Every structure is written in structure tokens, then in C-alpha cells.
Amino acid sequence: MKIEALKELVDRIENLLSEPPKELRRLFHGRGQTVDGLEQITVDWLQGQLVVAVFKQQDDHFIQALESELLALTTRDVWSKAEGYAILIQHRYQELAPTQVLWGEENVYPVGVENGLKYQLELKKNQNMGLFLDMRYGRKWVQENSQGKSVLNLFAYTCGFSVAAIEGGATQVVNLDMAKASLSRGRDNHRLNQHDLSKVKFLGHDLFKSWGKLKKLGPYDLIIIDPPSFQKNSFVMTQDYQKILRRLPSLLSASGEVLACVNSPAISTQFLIDGMAAEAPELQFIGRLENPPEFEDIDPEKGLKVMRFTY
Question: Where does the record place the S-adenosylmethionine-dependent methyltransferase domain (predicted)?
Fold first, then answer.
């Protein structure tokens, strides 16, 4: 990366904070490679906390310059008017992605708001805070298209899709994820939004050993598949996605729909279109959801892909 590009980074942040977002928002997405010299930096606004993530190790000179520019931001009127109270730098290239507090006093457990819904976040423990901001439009679509539907949420993580679906009027959501701690956070997210938990199920199981249980709880009007690109000993996208696709017809209702997601820069939309045609030809490709504009990418195929399929 380039030290001379850091001024542009802070200028962009300052411009966006002149009318600060009232909800969670990415302010800068260097990973989209649209700004030369800033390809390994992202900046998120957590309603008062600025979280700057560095994805590749840089020399001390660059890190010191980054810290200096960010500290200068805190002296400007725009920062106080935006009610900024902390700046964190997350070193994603290091083991466990440690986060340093550059300025202020951090809130490790902030409650973030997106599309009017509340989510419990957690900073400084893992790489990810509990909500992937590039999926904002996906959750919004689910919220707007769940009325009266039974929903299956695979690889549920902290149940963001589930929260959106229940808020949108879903009659039932079944969440499945091997990480029981993530599902527990999902319960917290529903409670934050005063949802009726009798409509929500949390299954801490291995998907590939749970088809019978899932079928008994179905059929589903909407199935959401948002897997990790790779999860050691449990999921490899290029090998295992097809195993899920071929099961879909047995789980869906007669007019069911699928939201299938891929978030690997190495895997294109065509991977899902071809996979569905081969494994579940009853389902037709409808289209791809747009990504939020703040996640602009020089190559759209390298960003998040959220694809709709239906009978």
C-alpha cells in the first residue's frame, strides 16, 4: 500500500461523517481495489466507533502514518459532531486478528442497528464482529419477502437472516449451524428485537447429518444458503455446495424459493448457476441481488454473490 494514499482515505471518511450514518455502515472498502494504494484496508462505522481493518502486514512507517492521520481526524469538528468515541485498528494479518484501541474507550459489546433491527456485536475476540455488512441488501430482501413463509436458514451464524425473516412476518425460521455459540448469539439478537422465540428453532448440528430432521420440520417456502468458503473438517465450497443443492427439491414447498450465496473471490456466479442446473434442474435462476454501493468492486465477480432461484 502507499502512504501518500492515506490522506485520501481520511478525506473520504471525513466527508462521509459530515452526515454520519445512523446505522452500521462500511465507510471504505479498499478490498474492492477501486483506490490505488489502499487495497488492504477497510473502514467500518459502528455508530460512534471507527474500526479500521488492515488485511496485509505493512512496515512500521506505514502503520505510524495511518495512526497519525486517524488521530488527526479526532481533532476535527466533523468527528465531534458525528459523536465518535473510539478508533480501533484490527490487524487481520496476525493470528486471532488482534485489535488495538488507537483513540478513546472502546465498547467491546456494542448493539448495532441495520434496517431498523438490532444486532449484538462483539469486538476484539474474533476476526468477525457478528454481522457481515456486505449482506445488508440480502437481509433487507429477506425481511421484505418473508410474510407468511416457513424459512430454513443454513449456516445461520448469528441468525441475521432469521431476525430479518421474523421481522418480515415469517411463520417459522429453522436455523442450522455447527457453532452453538453463534446460535446463542442469534437468540440474543431475536430477544433484542422482542421477537416471539416460539417461531424460531436453533439446531447446532452438522448439516450433512441432519437432512432427515430438516425434512420433518419442512417444507420450506424460502431456503437461505450462506456458507463459509472453507471450514476445516466440515465444509469446502467447491466440493460440498453441490451436496446441498441436490437436496433442495425435497425440502422446498411447491412454490419455494432459494437464496444461495457465495462470498469467495475465486468462485463466480456461474458456479452456482451451473451447479443448480446439474443438481436441482427444477429450480430456475431468477437473478442476482445487488450489493450495497459502499462495497463497490473493480470486478463484481470477486465480491459477494447472492443468487435467487425458484421453481
Answer: 25-309
In a domain, 187, yes or no: yes
Q: Are residues 77 and 186 in the same domain?
A: no
Task: Report the amino acid identity of residue 106.
Answer: E
Are 111 and 193 contacting, i.e. CB atoms less than 8 angstroms apart?
no
Q: Is the confidence at residue 3, as pLDDT, over 90?
A: yes
Is there a single domain that holds both residue 162 and residue 235?
Answer: yes
- Answer yes or no: do 216 and 270 share one domain: yes
Secondary structure in 3-state letters for 84-127? CCEEEEEECCCCCCCEEEEEECCCCCCEEEECCEEEECCCCCCC
Say if residue 142 is in the same domain as residue 52: no
Q: What is the dihedral sign for C-alpha 232, 236, 239, 244?
A: positive
Which cell numbers in the block locate residue 254?
Answer: 411447491
Overall domain count for the chain: 2
Containing structural domain, residue 271: 133-310
Confidence at residue 229, expressed as pLDDT on a 0 to 100 scale: 75
Q: Is 123 within the bounds of a domain?
A: no
CATH number at residue 100: 3.30.750.80
- Cα separations (Å) of 7 from 4, 66, 80, 190? 7, 9, 19, 41
Nearest alpha carbon to residue 221 among 185, 170, 175, 159: 170
Nearest one of 22, 260, 302, 263 to 142, comparing CA atoms: 260
Does 94 share its domain with 138?
no
Question: Quick one: CA torsion of 69, 75, 78, 83, rounded to 10 degrees?
Answer: 110
Q: Is the pTM of this model over 0.90?
A: yes
Does any domain span residue 70?
A: yes
What's the mean pLDDT in 95-109?
94
pLDDT at 223: 98
Under 8 Å between Cβ of 152 and 214: yes
Residue 120 lies in a domain: no
Helices (H), the chain: 6-17, 60-73, 77-81, 136-144, 160-167, 180-192, 211-217, 237-245, 248-251, 269-279
For 214-238, what is each residue's pLDDT tens digit? 999 999 999 999 998 766 667 889 8
